[in-house]
Structure formats: structure tokens, C-alpha cells
Amino acid sequence: MKTEAKGDPAMVSTTNSDVQWTLRLYVAGQTPKSLTAFDNLKSLCEDRLKGHYSIEVIDLLKNPRLAKDDQILAIPTLVRRLPLPVRRIIGDLSNIERVLVGLDLREKH
Amino acid sequence: MTRGTPDPELLAEIDNLRLRLAEAEETLAAIRSGEVDALVMAGDHGEKIQILGEGDLIYRQFIETLSEGTVTLSKNGDILSCNAALAKTLHRPLVQILGTAMRDHLSPEDHEAFGAVLAQAGTESRRLKIHLKTAEGFLVPVYLSATQLRSATPELVLCLVLTDLEEVISAETTLRESEHRYRELLELAPVGIAVYSEGKIVFTNPAGARLLGASSESLLVGKPIADFIHPDGLEAAQSRMRRMMAGETGLYPAEDVFLKLDGTPINVELISAPLHYKGIPAVQTIITDITRRKRDEAERERLMRAIEQAGEIVIITDPDGTIQYVNPAFENVTGYSRQEAIGGNPRMLKSGEQDQAFYNGLWQIISSGKTWRGTMVNRRKDGKNYTEDATITPVSDAGGRIVSYVGVNRDISAQRLLEDRLRQAQKMETVGQLAGGVAHDFNNMLQVIITYAEMSLAKVDPEQPLHKYLMEIRRAAQRSAEITGQLLAFARKQTVSPKILDLNLALASAQKMIQRLIGEDIDLVSQPGRELWKVKIDPAQLDQVLANLAVNARDAIGGVGKLTIGTEKVSFDKEFCATNPGFLPGEYLLLAVSDNGGGMDRETLSHLFEPFFTTKAPGKGTGLGLATVYGIVKQNNGFINVYSEPGEGSTFKVYLPRAEGEGADKGMEVEGAAPRGGTETVLVVEDEAAILELARESLEHLGYTVLVAKSPEEAIRRSQEQAGPIQLLITDVVMPQMNGRHLAERLTSVRPRLKCLYMSGYTADVIAHRGVLDEGVRFISKPFSLRVLAGKVREVLDG
Is the pTM of this model over 0.80? Predict the structure, then answer.
């Protein structure tokens, strides 16, 4: 189910080549879905954002307190920090369509 | 319609709530749909992560697939869990392991150490080497690493990782064994192995120490390697090492001279290679002492040279007789080169002089392992035969099998030739002695026959038939005397009076005689040489030589032809004689007699000078002619060579030594007319009655007054009794009590004017021994004819 953030100032997607994406993936050690999420994310970024992304993997098993930053409840969770607005997708990111929509990537760049 | 405007704060709050609700719904949905496998939970000390379901699948798989055993223990040391590897190592099913005490699976020896690990406080990992005990009781060495775990329960848990050390140990063992074997190899190697780095010896094995004359390796370690290399070769050795280190190949094995600890030089063979010794570049060298080998090589070299230079022929063949080696002497003697001989068979030298049985016998002896010694005639490459003394020895290996034959042979052809000559000479000598002995007795008898015949002739009327008979008797006797004279000449026992002659003069005066002998059909050509030296020879002997050679030539020509006689002076030095057998060094007069007759073959030539050898028909020739010549020439210290080829005629070359002193007599006796007698008184002394009687009658016949004596004593008495003069003493030279000379001396001391004439049929040696036969001595040899006697007597009395 897609969530749309109301009142978000930057609702218009600004997905053009010049923008640097900063993505944060929250994992729990080497749980299968953590691994899968990372793998999928990596593929996706290479595919769509080559050259202007950075992924930060946060292993909450090692440091659970970091969950607070982005108010993570379930793992794995992907958080798009940049470009704003912040977007969040929970799960192993296997549903590409949902991920694209959630990150506002769709087909057009 | 206007209601009251809602509170913006409230609106914001609602929005926020909506957002948060949405998030919560989203999260719940994600959880429910199984899209997450971990949750953030609130814990006692902050957030905690709870892994759901299969979240730890990967970890578990790691553990299970590890080849190392893993164990989780409670604080008490009980096994809470373990992986498959441990179960396999312990040879137990899981059910026998879980819940049991860890120490139960350890070797009892390790219980104490393990207990300490368990009790150890702190979170550092602890390491230990222990032995696990399998279900069967086998001990497996393992390396234990223990870590304390923080777990959910208050119980402390230990995690162990057990690494099977068997392989490691086995690898270690293998390595150790390998090292051990390597070390043993070094220890036992019979060749020296040394390692040096930075110019110093860092290692040497026992053989190396021994080689360098050190009682232990430690004496050498640390010493500079240069100390052990002979200074002459040091630079070369260092250069070689540098090149080897630079990667050059083909430098080794190299030979060098090393010095032992005490300075003794030894020949060595080196094989060097670079290596790393304790991390530093170094050189490892295998050193072999080849001093003995070098010495053996030098020895073999020396032997080889001896064989190569030996005058004897050396042939080496394989067991089948195929030639493997021949030395230069072989090449020289046989005329076959080394290349022609090697690979061939000694049968190439067969001359045909030995039959097959000979060779079969030879082969039988040597193939049975014995040495064969003998003489055989072989053939050179050019077809000429040569004689050799051969010694053929089989050579066997340690097992007694023959591996080769070695022949050492000496060419004795020259030796044989000399032997043959010697034998020839001895033969002549023997015959000569025989002849001499016979001739003496014969002489006396002939003397009797001749004289009586002459006296009878004087008393018989020439018209009477008796006269003719007597003439025949005398001729026959004279002829016989000539023959015995020749025999004695050959026997070299004839008494002779050598005189100094000019050959050309002698030749001139003999020309008529020679021409008469050879007849009209043969041309006589004279080639006198110039400025000839003189020779010393009895003229009668020279005549005999000329006569016999002329007759020989005449018979060889057998019809019309040419006879050439030449003279020349020649001299031969030692070198000439060394290379020309048959010549003696010195100055000689050459008398060469050549004819263009039929020539002689080799067979005839070999028998030429033998007495009684003749190629003429029986009755035609005595076979003594050339033997006489030979005897005369030898007696005069000359030598004679003959050159002849069938169909090419012959040349006899007589070499007579140059005479010492000067003065050439004419010295040729001329046959006078009738014998002149005399009236003097003659004393004849002769121990043989018949001769004495004969002499008396002969002399009385000639008119002399004859006194006779049978012995020297009687002669002395006679002389004393004789009142009147005695003009001539004729005495035998050899008599029992006193020789003729002494008698003469005795008598002439009393009768100073007494003249002497000696007579004898005895050997020249005997007479010479008794002091007669000086130059000019009046001598008459028996048998003599009346004429000769008369002449001599007259001569002496008149002289």
C-alpha cells in the first residue's frame, strides 16, 4: 500500500541525473531478508542511479540504538534520505514495482 | 456557511497522527506479510533486535558446514549444542553428545587443563591443545579455542572451536621426516657438500670436512672459502662463481685445485648452485676429491705413451679377433695405417708361410686363456714378408670371461738375417776346419807322389810309354795338390806371404792368364781406378781370386759376352754401414768383376760361397772356386758382395782393406825353366820318415849333398859332426821337441852363414804361434813339386 506524505513540500519528483541519492538500509546481521534487501538495492541503484547514489548499511544487530534515528520498527527497512522528501520502504525490496513507486523512480528519469 | 476555523495546531497534529498511523499500518502489514525477519524491540537496556523465524539460517549453515568442530557449553561444562563436525570426530551420534559433560570426551590427561579453561574468567579467548577421545577410545589431537558468550540467559556459555590437528601434525611429521632424511643424506653423502655465503663457509657435511682435512665440521664453519682454494686458481674460481650467480649455465662440473686445512693440494671436481640459506643468498657446492682419478689418468697417459712409442708392435683385439687398437710401431712395420687396421682382423697379415693348423693351434691356446709365444712370418702391405716373435695374451674380466687379446710382437727379420749369416759363416768355418784337417795329411801323401813321379820321370826315356804314364801320375798329383791348396785357402789355414801390391799392376800382369781362362769369345775389359791405395795380399791368393771369378763369369756367360774388371778406391763411414748390411767401415780397394751372363736367382745366391755347391753338371767344376775366393777375401780382412738378377748378369765386388805402409813388390814368381840344382851341402830336418827320404832323394837328384836328421837333436848332432860347411838348413816348422825356428837359431849361432828354408803343411795359426811366418821368411809349403823345391832352395842359397 502506497503511502503518500501529505503536506510534504517536495512532492514533485525531482528524479533527474544530477541529483545525488543517499540511501540507508537497515539490516539485522545476516538474516536472509537483510541480505536479499541489500542485494536488490544494489542492483536497482546500479540500474537506475548509476554514479549518483550512496548506500549506507546499518546493522542494527550490532547497534540497535540507531533504529531510533529513522524510527525503524521492522527489518529490513530502506530509507531514502536524499533527495527529500524522506521515503521509507519496509521489506526485502523484491517487489521492484513497489520499490520504484515508493522511491518515486518509476520509469521516467 | 462559516463554522469556526479549525485550530491549525490541531490540524497538524491530525496530519501527524495520520502519518504515524499509516506507518504503523505499513509496518504491521509488512510484518504480517512476512516481508521482514527482524524487529526492533524495547529491552531492559534500550532497543533490542529480535530475529524472527529463519533469520539465523545462514549462521546455522555456517556452523554445520564447518570442518572444525564447534561446541557450546554451559558454565558447568555441559554440552548445550555442537555441530556435525564434532559428532564425526567423536564417532558418536548427536544424542550421545548433547547434554553430556565436555570433559567426558577428552583424554584424561587434558582434564586438568580444560578445567582451568572453564574456570577462567574474562572474555578473552583461550587456547589449548588437547586430545579428544572418540567413541572407540582413540585420541585425536585438536586445537581448542574457547570464547565466553553473552547470552540471553544469565548462564555463561562457552563456545569452543576445535581444529583437528591430525593433518597439521601429520604434515609436521612429514616435514620433520623429510628434514631428517635430508640431513641424513648430507651426513652420509660420500661427496663433500658445503654451503657458503658472503664468502664464508656456513655449513659442511662430514664428507666435506674430511675432504678438506678437518676432523670436524666446526673447524671449517666461519672460515673464508678462499682459504681453501689454490691461489693459482682463485681468481678463476671467483669469476666462475660470479657468473654462476648471474645465471650463466654450463659452468659446472668444473675442476679445480683445493687446499686442505694443512695446505696439501687436492684435485677436486665442483658442482655449484645458488640457494638461500637462512634467508641470505648463498652457494651450495658438491665437492668430489678427484686426486686419485687424476693420478690414474696420468698413469694411464704414461702407459699409453709407452705403448705408442714402443718399438715393439702392439695389437689389441676384441674376443672375436677384431682389431681395436694398434700402435705406431705396427704401422711402421706392417705398412698398414691405423685406420686400415682398426676394425679389421690380424689375418690380413697372413703370409702363407704357416699352415692353417698353426693358426688353429694358436687360437686354441689363447682362447683357452693361455699365453701363446712363438715366431711367425707375416706379410706387409707391400707384399714383403717379415718375421716376428709374438706374444699373444688373453685379457679376462673379473668373471673369467675373455674381453680382449693383446699381442706384443717384435720384428726379428733383421735379427734373422744376421742369424742366417752367422750360421752361414759357422758352416763355412766347420767345413773349413774339416778341410784343413784332411788337407794336411793329404798334402804329405801328395808330396810323396809328386816327387817320386818326378824322379821316375827323370830316369825314364821320354820315348817309352812308361814316360807318359808317369806324366799322367804327376799331373794328377799336381792337380790334387792344387785342389788341396784351394781347400786350405778356403779353410783359411793356408800359410801365406802377404805382400804389398798395387792392384792395377797386379791386374795388368794377370791379364794374360785371365784372357786365356775365359777364351776368345768373351771380351775382357779393364777399368783401372786412379790413384789407388795399396793392398797387402799374397799375390798367389790374388791370382786365385781373379782366376776363380773369371772362370765363374765364363761359365755364366756360356758363349759370347763381356767380362769387365775394374778397380777403385772407396771408403765407408759408420752411418753408411749401419744402413747397409754387408759393409764394414774403413778404407778399401774395390775389385769389381762383372759379367753379362745369365745372372743368378736368390736361391743360388744364398749358397754361392758354399764349398762343393755348384750349379754346373757333375764332373764339370769342383764347387770350390767361389768358396776359395770367399776364404781368401776373409783371410785378408776384406768382404765380398755379389749383385745379380736372373737375366741381368752378375757383379762380384771384392773389398780389400788398404795396406798400411808402402812399397809394392813385384812379388810375382815367374815359373823358371828347368830346375837348377847345386852342389852345396844341405841339412834336412823332418820328423816324418817318408818326407825326409823324399827330400833327400829329390835334393840328391838335384846334385846337392844331403844330410838328414829326424829330429832337432839329431840335426844338432849332425851339424856338430859335420866338419865341412853346411850352406842350407831345410827344416819342418813344427816338430815335437823344438820348433824349426829355434833349431835354426841354435845352428846359426854355431854356423853364422847357415841359411834356412822352412817347410810345413801345417796350419797358419799353429805356425804363427810358433813364431814363424814373418815377412820375407823363406818358406815352402807342402806339398811342393820338385821344381818348386829346386827353385826355392836355389833362391835361398843365392839370396
Answer: no
